[in-house]
Amino acid sequence: MKSKILLVLLGLFLAASIAWAASYQVITQEAVIRKDKRFFAPLIVRVPYGELLEERERQGDWLRVSFKGAEGWLHISAVQEQKFSLSSLSGERAQETTKEEVALAGKGFTPEVEKAFRDKNANMRYDLVNQVQSQKINESRLQEFIRIGKLRESGGAP
């Protein structure tokens, strides 16, 4: 009898601890989990838009999270806390956003704002903007640049 009560209490404790852990959804096109609480810290893993992450710890604007077995630090600006909603139990479907809409929102654009801007600036070379945005920077080259340039961030880990 005591073992059954103990198992029930253990189950309730585990369920409560899971409920208390904050969950976050990536709201940027791609979030980066880093080794330390710094924007220049070495990359551990990239997390695509829409993925859910569980908070392990929070220090200021930095969250320690895990993703597919990798654990590290992520800046709070890349995620939005997920609130439990009873509507999710009733079968209501949330409105989804495309990756393109997320990218535009991150730049402060909506399709309407971008169209108005293009109409006012017809001679602008948008192909060059797209070319710059398509560049991918190798993480090891970025870390070497930071090391050689002796770049430091205020706050965060050394």
Describe how the helices and strands are arranged:
Blueprint: H1 2-20, E1 23-26, E2 30-34, E3 43-48, E4 52-59, E5 62-67, E6 70-75, E7 79-82, H2 99-106, H3 111-120, H4 126-133, H5 139-148
Antiparallel strand pairs: 1-4, 1-7, 2-3, 4-5, 5-6
Strand content: 15-25%
Q: Which spans of ≥5 residues are poorly predicted at pLDDT below 50?
A: 14-19
How many β-strands, per DSSP?
7
Order of helices and strands: HEEEEEEEHHHH
Numbering strands along the chain, what is their spatial order in the largest sheet? 6-5-4-1-7
CATH first level = Mainly Beta
CATH homology group: SH3 Domains
Number of structural domains: 1
Give the second-level CATH assignment, the architecture. Roll
**Major beta sheet summary:** 5 strands, antiparallel
CATH fold category name:
SH3 type barrels
Structural notes for this entry:
This protein is α+β, with helices and mostly antiparallel strands and about 160 residues long. It has one domain: Roll (SH3 type barrels), CATH 2.30.30.40. The chain contains five helices and seven strands. It has a five-stranded antiparallel β-sheet, with no helix packed on it. The radius of gyration is 21 Å and the shape is extended. The N and C termini lie far apart (about 55 Å). About 5% of the residues have low confidence.
What labels describe this entry?
158 residues; alpha+beta; SH3 type barrels; 5-stranded antiparallel beta sheet; two-stranded antiparallel sheet; 25% strand
